[in-house]
Design brief:
Strand content: 15-25%
Shape: globular
Distance between the termini: 37 Å
Order of helices and strands: EEHEHEHEEHEHEHEHEHEHHHEEEEEE
Radius of gyration: 20 Å
């Protein structure tokens, strides 16, 4: 059961008779949000809710998803959390964009509303340690250090990053620089608020970097940068990378064609899905009419965890937040358990699988696993 997305509504605009157990879902479904990521996240959430209800719901009560479109807007996300709290949801789930998830997490912490973050990786999801927030995706520091290991193993120590002003991109740049510097690596920043794609090519040619990382938005300016670099004979040997995962979704291949391939990125999947994951992959493929991204699996796992918590503890918010350290749920990508990770302010699934993959130049719809973290 799903309540369709809508803009935040005033107090009292929606009522529930208490027959269902409600989970709020935050997803980017309109621009400037990454719409395709939001669609895959929502597909995973919805599939899991249907399966929970087919199996009898939560102690006989149907599970209901109350969806709110964040549109990659932190203020809109915070307002949605306020609304969902008033509507009596047992917990909030989802969100893809890290800066948006940070705003939602802060509000959920203030309100005492459990929030299971599906996809956002920013280490500092909350300013202070909180008992109310847990996360399935790995912290950015862990994933991007895996990516840095891949770069070094592939012979790339002189790195350029095309970046835009953002807490998320700045954090990524800092992680790469701090990790690479002691290992003989360097990171040069190309500020896309002052440069166009042509100027990026000139900067790369002058710098001598062997790899360019796209720490920028999708589709633009990422697509324009790729096209310009691919067509510049001076840069024929440079590797383009995208640790944030822009090439994961079909739109990337549609926009760039053959240029979409051989651009390594992070994805949070194991080498082999669990038996549950194999079944879910088939169902998601039918639902999406395309191969599901790792974000769709994150959505499914989010509801799988919350459903187990709600079955065990009821819909009481405080009991839900107290249950994070006791979670042990078989997800699509492995056994999910939460712990306190040094430097991370929320309950963290420490075992999230991490891969560096790219699209195969011989067949851009197929992914190659280049490195496992």
């Amino acid at each position: 059961m799903t309540t369709p997305p809508s803009p935040p509504s005033p107090l009292g605009a929606e009522r529930t008779d208490g027959s269902s157990v409600r989970i709020g879902a935050l997803v980017p479904l309109t621009r400037p949000g990454w719409i395709e990521a939001g669609q895959h996240l929502l597909a995973g959430l919805e599939l899991a809710v249907r399966e929970v209800n087919d199996a009898g719901g939560i102690a006989g009560r149907p599970l209901e998803l109350v969806v709110r479109d964040t549109a990659a807007d932190p203020q809109r996300a915070a307002a949605a959390v306020d609304e969902l709290a008033r509507l009596g949801v047992a917990a909030v789930a989802g969100e893809y964009h890290s800066v948006v998830a940070r705003a939602a997490a802060a509000r959920a912490d203030t309100l005492g509303l459990p929030f299971l973050c599906s996809s956002a990786v920013l280490d500092a999801l909350t300013e202070q340690p909180t008992e109310w927030v847990a996360r399935l995706s790995p912290p950015q520091s862990r994933g991007w250090q895996v990516y840095a290991d891949f770069l070094l193993a592939a012979g790339h120590s002189r790195i350029a990053v095309a970046t835009q002003p953002s807490v998320y991109w700045a954090s990524g740049t800092r992680i790469l620089r701090d990790y690479l510097a002691p290992r003989g690596g360097t990171v040069t920043e190309l500020d896309m608020s002052a440069l166009d794609a042509t100027a990026v090519c000139d900067g790369l040619a002058d710098d001598g970097a062997t790899a360019l990382l796209l720490l920028v938005g999708h589709p633009e300016p990422a697509v324009s940068i790729v096209r310009s670099v691919r067509r510049d004979s001076r840069l024929a040997e440079i590797m383009i990378g995208a640790p944030a995962g822009q090439p994961e979704f079909a739109e990337w291949a549609t926009l760039l064609g053959d240029d979409s391939a051989a651009i390594p990125f992070l994805r949070y999947l194991p080498e082999r899905l669990t038996p549950l994951g194999v079944r879910v992959e088939k169902a998601l493929r039918e639902q999406l009419t395309e191969a599901p991204s790792f974000v769709a699996f994150e959505g499914y796992d989010t509801v799988a965890v919350l459903a187990e918590v709600l079955r065990s503890n009821g819909a009481d918010r405080a009991r839900t937040s107290e249950s994070w350290p006791r979670v042990a749920v078989e997800g699509t990508r492995g056994q999910i358990q939460f712990s306190r990770t040094p430097g991370i302010s929320v309950w963290q699934w420490a075992g999230t699988p991490i891969q560096v993959v790219d699209r195969d130049p011989a067949e851009p719809k197929r992914f190659r696993n280049l490195h496992t973290g």
